[in-house]
Amino acid sequence: MPAFSKTRIAPTPSGFLHLGNAFSFILTAAMARLHGASILLRVDDLDKERCRQAYLDDLFDTLLFLDIPWDEGPRSPKDVYDRFSQHLRLDQYETVLSQLHQAGFLFPCACSRSDLANAGLNSGCTGKCLEKTAQAAAWKIADSPETIEILSYPSRFSTYPFPTAMKHLVVKKKDGFPSYHLASVVDDVFFGVDLIVRGADLWESSLAQLHLSSLLPTTRAFAHATFLHHPLLTEDGQKLSKSAGHNPIRQLRQTALHRKEIYQQASRFFGLEAEATNLREFTDLLDPTRFASL
């Protein structure tokens, strides 16, 4: 069984957490215990328009309710603002952005989503956008590889076609802030994360982030991380969404649902041989090779 140093729980406080988030937290914590890794709580709060105090409070309430431990990171909402907010690491992101720009990897693009759609594109650039204003431009990666290599759990290197939708990845948004992809790579390298547990919906994001990390010596350690993409909890065939208000944990708590019932549901969802009622039991029953999808 491989050994890992650190994994992370990295939610964005942009909505009330749902049952799918809870399942992912439980799996991540169990993977950490199974492999002797520590857990980092990383709050992705760069997007001030979407991140709200109520959602941040809900994050800590949910972790407490589920009895999910973590070893590093903020201990309270106030601690996020005081010591761990991504806004306190903007200089690190700007350093990487400057290095990417100086190395010639980036180009400015002011295309809107409608511009791309009207041109029959789902990513990239129309080539006409800078007739508008360079001040409104995002910065994107100029080139993409044909294939990308990823280290999938437990220890399997595989090569996949680079996703078309991730061509010309945005690394700096039009509002001047670094993108989620850039901040995520920089943070994982900075904190020494070597096991990344995330939903299957982020598979293409993982491949794109691996390409981004390969461009600079300071971020290449990201490529040594092992990825486990777990299946998604869905409703009517659609993945659960915080913004859509699917199955919020806060409502489940208000109906006197006990945490053991969530662990039992998570056990059935991940195909455990029996129903766990707490994290220790879930870890003991877990065989992640049974559902590692990619």
TrEMBL record:
The lineage of its organism: Bacteria, Pseudomonadati, Bacteroidota, Cytophagia, Cytophagales. It holds the Pfam family tRNA-synt_1c. GO terms for biological process: glutamyl-tRNA aminoacylation. It comes from Lunatimonas lonarensis. This is Glutamyl-Q-tRNA synthetase. GO terms for cellular component: cytosol. SUPFAM superfamilies: Nucleotidylyl transferase. One of its GO terms (molecular function) is glutamate-tRNA ligase activity. The keyword Transcription does not apply. Keywords: Aminoacyl-tRNA synthetase, ATP-binding, Ligase, Metal-binding, Nucleotide-binding, Protein biosynthesis, Zinc. Belongs to the class-I aminoacyl-tRNA synthetase family. Residues 6-117, 164-269 form the Glutamyl/glutaminyl-tRNA synthetase class Ib catalytic domain. InterPro entries: aa-tRNA-synth_I_CS, Glu/Gln-tRNA-synth, Glu/Gln-tRNA-synth_Ib_cat-dom, GluQ/Sye, Rossmann-like_a/b/a_fold. It comes from the Bacteria.
